Amino acid sequence: MLLSGTAMEQTGGSVSPILSVKNLSTSFRVNDEWKTVVRNMSFDIAPRETVAIVGESGSGKSVTSLSIMRLLPKRTSRIEGQVFLDGRELMALPEEQMRQVRGNEISMIFQEPMTSLNPIFPIGKQIAEALTVHKNISKAEAKAEVIRLLEKVRIPNAKGRFDEYPHQFSGGMRQRVMIAMALASKPKLLIADEPTTALDVTIQGQILDLIKTLQEEEGMSVLFITHDMGVVAEVADRTIVMFRGDQVETGPTDDIFHRGQHPYTRALLSAVPRLGSMGDRKLPLRFPSIDIKTGEQQVLADVKDTVAKGKTPILDVKDLTTRFDIHSGLFGRKTGAVHAVEKVSFDLFEGETLSLVGESGCGKSTTGRSVTRLINPTSGKVQLDGYDVMSLDQPTLRKMRRSIQMVFQDPFASLNPRMSIGSAVMEPFVEHGLGTKAQAREKTAELLDKVGLSADMMKRFPHEFSGGQRQRIAIARALMLDPKVIVADEAVSALDVSIKAQVCNLLLDLQQSLKLAFLFISHDMAVVERVSHRVAVMYLGEIVEIGPRAAVFENPQHPYTKKLMSAVPVPDPSRRSIKRNMSTDEIKSPIRPADYVPPVREYREVSAGHIVQVA
User: Fold this and answer.
1) CA proximity to 242, closest of 498, 55, 43
2) What top-level class would CATH report for the domain 1-94+221-270?
């Protein structure tokens, strides 16, 4: 049983904290000056308690955890204050003794497991190393313990996967491997630094359930670092809110959520989209926005209807199929195919947002790239703004792409790091011969202003901007050709809650002023509910349910749609003891034999425009 936020007070202070942090401050050397990024952090974590540190990128959450573990580079960082683990002062320990603490008494799970796992060693060997470094056990004993740990973190066929490599595991399974490694030495404290941020909603739900279960079984304390208030509500007994390096509010999670005092706490909570909050509202709704300088909330006006009803759709997709052949053997014969997209049909009208939702590997992004012909589909029909997309030659395809543009998930990867952002935004205009460089520069200045940046930033490079600003630059570049359709492929999934709110509001504003149609690809159901007119749910390359947003969210029919919705973290602390008991199975493989013939699917109409695949 987990202790409540006031556990220590209830026992008259007799319970000694596992971790006690007093006046922790961390500074980094910047241009021969020390810049303080975490100021006077103080908190305790009791046995079996979960404490969450919540805040946005740059608030100092991860720096706090790395300071506790003494993992920051000595030459460029300075840590002040005291950190006690079970009464022992960690800051005073020699480095060799601190190494014995790390991974043994305190373990850490990092945000991106692929960068934490060594790609050239099997995962079994990597977990075994965590055991043999801290314990005097034989290889056979270590292997048996690793298999037990892999089973404990619900990895199917643990014995068979002992010798597999990190790239052979999905993102969710790699995170389970990291948890197994962290638990190997039965630590007193587990630090989980954004362990679910990059995961699909169903995998995130599984990982949260797993951490809760293992905490109960192993009796460890947890320091959970995140920017997701829904996750905080589901796992934390107490919560610490950080804003720009300062601890602005601390208390039991229930008090923070229902009686938060600091303006930033209230703004952070109001910016979290709550699944089911839209009711039967037909139009999208702007997010309450946070002023990142003051931390206060800004409420924006309602969205007006922009959908051009009764007209020919701007994008019409019929039976779109995209497969990738698999060749193997000595002569490279075709032995199978990845059925990435299978007979997908939908239409999209001017001024409308259609969201494609589903887990990684369901075919959402491939659908977006297929309709733009960034990937050549296998078969089907795509009509876009009068073009028969499937039959276009290269010059006409180039011209067609002025009508449809993409905004990718990672703007840093899609912007040339050696090109100024002014040049990057101007490039499509110049390449398509739409005017002179002077006209391109003038239009770029207008668009940067429209997306909330300024013209004097044109000479800067991508690395000089934050993630949210880079996404705004990518949106400005997509608008440079005056497209009628924008494919937003996970355009907000990696952003902080306030930046996510700003970018979503920007997309809604642009839709209103320019009558843009959006194909919005996402796995974030709460965001999808807020921005969509219609929703299509994808599973294993097929659309299993499609309809008006209110119909799909208020009356989901397909089992997979229900599964996606039940996995969304709800920002309500009263649900903390609830476990979803979700299946730990990975999403099924879309790989089929070469002679595979897909079954003919049947659909039924539940209500006007709400269509569901018959199982």
Assistant:
1) 55
2) alpha beta
Helix (H, G, I), strand (E, B) or coil at 279: coil
pLDDT, greater one: 448 or 495: 448
Which position has the token pair 């595991």? 169
C-beta of residue 41 within 8 angstroms of C-beta of residue 249 = no
pLDDT tens for residues 358-385?
A: 887 788 989 999 999 999 999 999 999 9
Provide the 10 A C-beta neighbour count for residue 553.
Answer: 22
User: Contact 545/210 with Cβ under 8 angstroms?
Assistant: no
Question: Hey, do 1-94+221-270 and 277-403+483-615 end up sharing a CATH topology, with the first three levels equal?
Answer: yes
Give the model confidence (pLDDT) of 155-194 as tens digits. 878 888 899 998 888 777 788 888 888 888 888 999 998 8
Question: Which tens digit of pLDDT belongs to each residue from 546-582?
Answer: 999 999 999 999 999 998 888 787 777 877 766 665 5
Homologous superfamily, domain 277-403+483-615: P-loop containing nucleotide triphosphate hydrolases (3.40.50.300)
251: three-class secondary structure by DSSP: strand
Report pTM: 0.80
Residue-range domain boundaries for the chain:
1-94+221-270, 277-403+483-615, 416-481
- Report the C-alpha gap between 146 and 152 in whole angstroms: 10
pLDDT tens for 467-478 read 778 888 999 999
**501-525 burial code (b ≥16 CB/10 A, e <16):** bbbbbbbbbbbeebbbbbbbbbbbb
E strands in 361-496: 379-384, 387-388, 404-407, 485-489
Contacts of 435 (CB under 8 A, 6+ apart): 429, 443
CB atoms under 10 Å from CB of 419, counted, come to 14
Residues 6+ apart with CB under 8 A from 148: none
Query: Which amino acid belongs to residue 528?
Result: V
Report residue 588 as tokens: 């099924």
